[in-house]
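Re: weekly structure request thread

Next one in the queue (277 aa):
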Amino acid sequence: MNKMSVRWVIALKEEAKVILDYYEMALINKKTLYPIFKNIEETHWLILSGIGRHNSAAATSYLYTISNASKWTSWINIGIAGSGKGDYGNIYLVDKIFNQNSFITYPATMPKSNLPKMSLLTTDIPITNYSSKELIDMEGSAFFDIASKLTSKEFICIMKIISDGPENNIKQLTKLRIIELLKLNLTKIAQVVSYYENLSENENQIKERPEIFFKISSNWHFSVTQSSQLENLLRRLKVFCDNKEIMDLIKQCKSSSSVINSLNNKIKTNKVNWSDI
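Done, posted below.
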């Protein structure tokens, strides 16, 4: 069963259209503060935040709650950006973020990616004096600030497509052109997203409690500490025991403590070199 989880925070519907179509997301059937979309499997969710840091921060937090995002959810922000250095129409991964209030952070960008990387300046008002700025937007720093409170930095990605700059006046940027810029970069976007899908799914497999955990928990009462011990023991036991063997081992136990002791003894008596696992 696919347990990967991806959440998108995008400012404009024109920036989101290609993503919504590609991942087959539709508007959810309930009244929400922001427009929210999801696919049938509910693995991809997308929120339209609107422009600005405050909107982006609020929308990110709201999507986390509405979609019941997990700790292993990957968070993606994508959109257009101005630039005084990059090439028009190219897509870049953001590896440094700062704003006019001196907020500076370094996202953990996707390893071994062929996409070029640039720093991102997030502003509260549009800037047309691009000077030497690499990327300029109005949401990135706020998105990252909130997302990094919801998950590890390794699960956060910001991608920006250059839409305006010294040689490309922002006044010439149309809704149709924004859609076209996203469409031209869709293959690259999908490759990056695939990495974050796999990252999320792999982490879920590591974190997800073994099925037998719930079966045992329903038969004996475990404290919070004991539950953690039980989960750890079951992960180790599954290397050399199937579920039936484990249940046979503990079926005579009268208490949660005796269950844990039995599982511990099984591990101690089994000749497994844990350093090789």
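The chain has nine helices and ten strands. The two ends are 24 Å apart (CA to CA).
Next request, please.
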